[in-house]
Design a protein that fits this description.
elongated, 0% strand, 126 residues, 3 helices, 83% helix
Length: 126
């Protein structure tokens, strides 16, 4: 194996960055909690076609949470990297996982929207 290029970050700086990521994650979790409560409140105001909208909203929130969690995980891995090669590997893996997740999420959203549209059309039929 070839010599790895040392990429030293002073421990105090690494600890600060790690703590910052944790604080950002908590702030995001609080934001998501408030968002879910707001969506729940909005969904209870009307019924009929909103059942489909609720599915789409929940799916979108779920995807958002997954993507942000992956980003925080990526950030923490970057903070802990010790070599340039490790940084490159972490970045490559993250991009590959995010592309695959985006493809799966797009497919799922398409399926949910198709179902919502089909259900709405059936409710409108006389």
């Amino acid at each position: 194996m070839a010599d790895e290029t040392v990429f030293e970050i002073p421990e105090p700086m690494r600890a600060f960055a790690d703590k910052s990521v944790d604080q950002a994650r908590k702030a995001f979790d609080d934001f998501m909690s408030a968002t879910v409560k707001a969506v729940d409140k909005a969904e209870t105001s009307t019924k009929s076609i909103q059942e489909g909208a609720r599915d789409v909203n929940r799916q979108a929130i779920g995807f958002l949470e997954e993507n942000v969690a992956a980003s925080f995980e990526f950030a923490q891995k970057l903070v802990r990297a010790r070599t340039v090669e490790e940084l490159q590997s972490i970045h490559r893996d993250f991009v590959q996982r995010q592309v695959a997740a985006a493809q799966a999420q797009t497919k799922t959203v398409g399926e949910v929207l198709t179902k919502v549209a089909t259900d709405a059309a059936q409710k409108i039929k006389p």
